[in-house]
Input
Amino acid sequence: MKIPLQGLTGGGRDQRTEWILPQDWRDGKEHVFYIEMACNKIMGNASGNDDNQPPSPDTYFLLEKADIVAVNLEARALLIDFKMISG
Output
């Protein structure tokens, strides 16, 4: 059974948008992980003008970009230092 490891959300100051790959996954081997994606239209997913109806089963969304990167932690710490000093 797969158990979710981290919930992600985007945008706000206190919201997480990053998840650090576990150290034991950095072994050069292939690993499989799943990304859950939830999508809504601007005014929700209701079909027609009635908000109490379920969304149309014909609605599709496209994930256009997902980045997996190796972050340079020293450079990131230096950037944070500069931001704090300039603030």
User: Anything to note?
Assistant: The mean pLDDT is 74.
